[in-house]
Amino acid sequence: MRLIIARSNFFSYSETFIEEQINQLEPIHVLYEGWQPSRLKAGGSIYSFPFSILAVRGVLRRIIPGLYQKIYTHYLRRFLRVHKADAFLANYGPLGTNIYEACLAEGIPYSVVFLGFDAAEKKTLETYGARYALSLPRAKAIICVAESMRATLEEIAGPLPNLHVIPCGVDTSRFIPGTPKDGFNVISVARFAEKKGSLKSIQAFEMLLRDFPDSQLRMVGDGPLWEEAKEYVSAHGLSESIHFLGAMGQSDYLPLLQESNVFVQHSVLTPSGDSEGTPVAILEASACGLAICSTRHAGIPDAVIEGKTGLLVDEHDVEGMASALKELATDSATTRAYGVAARKHMEEAYDVVKLSAKIKGLLI
C-alpha cells in the first residue's frame, strides 16, 4: 500500500498517538503544516515556487482563502499522481475537509481520524460542519477514537456506515511495569490545558495531603495553564509535595511512570465544547501497571474499567477525586491489583500493533 499520512504538526509532544500511527503504518510520505498540509516530513514541499514560500501561502490563505484552496487542491492532486498514492489518511476532521477533493478527483480512497476536539468543540463544528457533511459520507473510513464522537458526527452528516471506533493504542512492548518507589507516588502526564483539568487534579491531591502528608505528585507537561498551576501550588504551600517537570519525551517520562503507583487526570468537557478522545497518557500509565484515577469523560470509561483498573469520578467533582485518591492510598493491595488488571486490559484491547492492523485494513 502506498499510503500518505497527513497531520497538522511536524511533531508535538501531545500527539504521540500520531507518531505511533506513522511508525506502524509506514507511509511513503507524511505531510504536515496546519489544516492544508503541504510540507513533507522528509523535506520539501508539494508546491513549486512561489507557493513553496511560507509567506506567500500565508498571504493567500488570509486574503483569498477560496482561491488558495483551489491552488492547494491542484498541487495536492499532482503530488498524489507523481507518488502513485493509493490511500490517504488524514488526522483530524478539519484537515480531512481540505484533502478530500483532491483524493476524489484522483480516485484515491481517503480516511479521516477524529481525535477529540474536532468532533466536539463548538467553534470547530460551526466552521467545518458543512464540509464534514460533504466529505465524511464519501470517505473510505471515518475512524473515531471514542464511541462518544459518533452521535455528533452523524447528527452533522447523517448515518455513517463507514464510521469505525478504534481507540488510540499503546506500545505494550515498550511501556511495561517497573518497580514503584516507596510511599504513595502519583503522576500526571498532560498539557496544562483546560480540558485536562490539571488544577482540579492538584486540588484533589491537596485534599489527599491532609490525611497522607508524605504523598508526592509529579506533573509532566506544559501549556497555557502551566503558570497558573505553579502559582496555585506556591501560594498554597504545596511545593514540597507537587513537582512540575515540564514537557518531556516518552523516553524521559517512562521511568517516572514505572516508579509511580497511581496516574491522575481530571479531564473535563470545556464550555467551548473541547473534549478528549482517549488520552494516550492514561493508556501508557495503564500499560506500566499503574492504577488510574480519572473522570467519566469521552473515551476514558472504556480505557479505565471502573472498580477494576482504577477509579473514576464525575467531571468537576474534585472532592470525589480526592476521596478516590485517599482510597487508593489507604489500600495499597487493591491499588496494585488495579495496576495488574490495567496492564492486562491494555494488552488485550489497546495494543498499538493490533489496533494499527485494524486501521490498515480499512484504508483501501
Write a short abstract of this structure:
It comes from Aquirufa originis. With about 375 residues, the chain is α/β, with parallel strands linked by helices. The protein contains 14 helices and 13 strands.
Could you please describe the fold and organization of this structure?
- With 364 residues, the protein is α/β, with parallel strands linked by helices.
- The chain folds into two domains: 3-165, Glycogen Phosphorylase B (Rossmann fold), CATH 3.40.50; 185-349, Glycogen Phosphorylase B (Rossmann fold, 3-Layer(aba) Sandwich).
- The protein is 44% helix and 15% strand.
- It is built from 14 helices and 13 strands.
- The chain has helices at 16-25, 54-63, 65-82, 93-106, 122-135, 150-157, 198-211, 226-235, 250-258, 280-287, 300-303, 318-330, 332-349, 352-362, and strands at residues 3-6, 29-32, 39-40, 87-91, 110-114, 141-144, 163-165, 185-189, 216-220, 242-246, 262-264, 291-295, 310-313.
- The strands form two sheets. It has a seven-stranded mixed sheet, sandwiched between helices.
- Helix 11 (300-303) links the parallel strand 12 and strand 13 (310-313).
- The longest helix is centred in the N-terminal third of the chain and has 18 residues, at 65-82.
- The N and C termini lie close together (8 Å).
- Residues 171-344 form the Glycosyl transferase family domain.
- Its EC number is 2.4.-.-.
- It is an enzyme of class 2 (transferase).
- Keywords: Glycosyltransferase, Transferase.
- InterPro entries: Glyco_trans_1.
